[in-house]
Amino acid sequence: MIAFLNGVLVARRPSSIYLDVNGVGFEVLMPQTSIAALPETGSQVQVMTYLQVREDGMSLFGFLSLEEKALFEELIGVSGIGPKLALAALSFYSPSELVAAIAAQDVTRISKIPGVGKKMAQRIILELKGVIDGGMDGLLGDASSGASDTGTSSQSSALKGITEALLSMGFTSAEAELALSGAPEGASESAILQYALKRLGSQV
Questions:
Q1: Furthest-apart CA atoms within the chain: distance in Å
Q2: SS3 readout for 160-178
Q3: Cα gap 173→164, rounded to integer Å
Q4: Fewer CB within 10 Å, N or C, the chain?
Q5: Which domains does the chain have, with CATH numbers?
Q6: DSSP annotation of 14
Q7: What is the DSSP letter of 57?
Q8: Which candidate, 64, 58, 105, places its Cα nearest to that of 87?
Q9: What's the pTM value of the predicted model, to 2 decimals?
C-alpha cells in the first residue's frame, strides 16, 4: 500500500491534484477543502494516500492528515458509500465536525452532505457510531496500536507490499528489487517506500 507521497505540486483540478514524485506524475483525488489548503503550485507537499485497486483501474486518494484518511476509510466501508461520496463528505465537513455529528447521531446535519439523504445518514450513524465513540482518538486507535507493534517480523510483508506498489507505478521488478536493496530494517512501510523512491529518483 502507498502510505504517502512527497513531491512537487504540479497542478490543481476541481477534485484532484497532479504531484511529481521524482519524475513520476501522480493524479491524486482529494477533498476540495484539502486541495484549497495546499500551498501554491511548485511547492513541495506531502499527502497521506489510499490506493483503490479495481478491475477497471486504480485510483489514488490523498489527504492532509491521518485523521482525514482514517475517516475516509471508515466511510467507504459503509454499505452504499463509495470513494466519491466519501470525498464529498470530507469536502463538506472537517473530520472533527463529521465525527462529532456521527457521535451525536445528528441525522439532519449528516444528510446535508451532497448525495446523502436521510436513510444514508442513518446508515452512516448506525455503522460508524461504535467506531468513533472515542472521538478522533478512537478513530485512530487501531492505526496507533498497529504502528507500535510493527517490528522486524513484518519487514518481509512490508517489502512485498511496497514492491507491488512500485510495480503499479510502472517500475520493473528489477528496478523495484534494486531500489529496496539495503532498506533499513524495522522501518515503517512509509519510510521504506520513501527510501525506495529516493533511490529510483537518483537513477533517473
A1: 54
A2: HHHHHHHHHCCCCHHHHHH
A3: 9
A4: C
A5: 4-63 (2.40.50.140), 66-145 (1.10.150.20), 152-199 (no CATH)
A6: S
A7: E
A8: 64
A9: 0.65
